[in-house]
Amino acid sequence: MGLLIVLSGPAGVGKGTVCSALRGKMPDIVYSVSATTRQPRQGEVDGVNYFFKSKEQFQEMIARDALLEHAEYVGNYYGTPRDFVDRTLASGKDIILEIEVQGALKVKEKFPEGIFIFLMPPSMEELKQRITGRGTESQDTINHRMNVAVEEMNLLRHYDYAVVNDQIDAACHRIQSIIVAEHCRSERVMPYLAESQAAIEKA
Amino acid sequence: MGLLIVLSGPAGVGKGTVCSALRGKMPDIVYSVSATTRQPRQGEVDGVNYFFKSKEQFQEMIARDALLEHAEYVGNYYGTPRDFVDRTLASGKDIILEIEVQGALKVKEKFPEGIFIFLMPPSMEELKQRITGRGTESQDTINHRMNVAVEEMNLLRHYDYAVVNDQIDAACHRIQSIIVAEHCRSERVMPYLAESQAAIEKA
Fold it and tell me: Where does a domain end: B74, B93, B112?
């Protein structure tokens, strides 16, 4: 069985950038494809960029619990098809799901055996600077975003790992290390050991 | 706080070789120094190769629980001084302890927060070949060693990780990954986050 790796973290922390960099570094890992009701853009391919669905198809997927999580955003649905994840894991490959914090917690309810990685800003000070940095927002907007960020940071306790995104390469190296380490966890290796010992005893 | 990393595994699996290779690759990690009652050999330095102790000193260390584990081997005592481990961890450095499986389990009783890594042969078949390979042992000796090896392999369930020693570089890479990953575990990162948030709220 492969591992389900969920990469999440507060808005603005750089999930997408880190995930894109990982694709280049870990080509053997599968990247989850979301389902959406929004129209395909020029060049987007069904099953590669997204699984494009009608609103009726999407609602039917929700009804039969075919999505690990879903959300509505600017009038369109987005979600993670469970079937694609299941098939990838059953083929023995790892799959990475890059997702915002609320969605990640929903995935955890359905998939507690997943590896949940929380991408962190180097410091709360740094996150504050990223949020206020553009200098075009009102103080109210900044305060609101900062409160949301602090709330999102507090969700860290639901995750297995915290990876600081100080530099993209360093963050990728930590994530790669986590994946290697998780494959070495003794409870994953023991079933193979038992098979191997049984083979020896028969011989 | 640094991490205590315990590297163990069945006799003949190559713990010493892997640990030596790790020293070259991870110079920032401290390698535990054992205490012993055996005489120093030419060139051995007290506090570097071993802490050399008299039998009385060693027994006094046992009496005041100053050793994480100890054993007698060919008439001499060997043990792991707890003080050296504690001071290293308090200085913020990781420390690696390379030790046989029985000693590792004793360390776990006193230090359950350690990271316990079990070095494995690529297969039980391979371990059998290593044990029978020299061709100079009686069938009884081989059977005895194989039984011991199977028993030692069954101790894997007490460990956090299993690392296959198929190639030294590959085994070292897995161990390095485990150490990086363990430093990212969210329960280790959360205290720093709380401090950082408190600083932000005050500011």
Answer: B93
Domain around B152: 1-29+94-203
Alpha-carbon distance B84 to nearest alpha carbon in chain A (angstroms): 27
Output the CA–CA distances (angstroms, integers) from residue A74 to A38, A40, B115, B122, in the order listed.
10, 15, 46, 53
pLDDT single digits (tens) B64-108: 999 999 999 889 999 999 999 999 999 999 999 999 999 999 999
Interface of B with A in 149-178 (CB under 8 A): 150, 153, 156-157, 159-163, 173-174, 176-178
For the question of an ipTM over 0.85, the answer is yes
Cβ atoms B188, B195 nearer than 8 A: no
Within this chain, do residues A127 and A58 fall inside the same structural domain, yes or no?
no
Token pair of A64 as six digits: 């039969």
Q: Which residue in A has a C-alpha nearest to residue B171's C-alpha?
A: A184
Q: Is residue B132 domain-shared with residue B37, that is, in the same domain? A: no
Q: Say if residue B110 is in the same domain as residue B169.
A: yes
Q: Do B160 and A193 touch (CB under 8 A)?
A: no
Closest in B120, B177, B197 to A181, CB measured: B177
Asked whether the beta carbons of residue A162 and residue B189 sit closer than 8 angstroms, the reply is yes
Shortest distance between the Cα of B203 and any Cα of chain A, in A, equals: 10
d(CA B199, CA B28): 30
pLDDT at A85 over 80: yes
B136-149 residue pLDDT tens: 778 888 888 888 88
Q: DSSP secondary-structure letter at A30?
A: E
Count: domains in chain B: 2
Same domain, B129 and B203: yes
Query: Last residue of a domain, which of A45, A60, A92?
Result: A92
Q: Is residue A56 located within the same domain as residue A139?
A: no
Q: Which residues contact B183 (CB under 8 A, 6 or more apart)?
A: B3
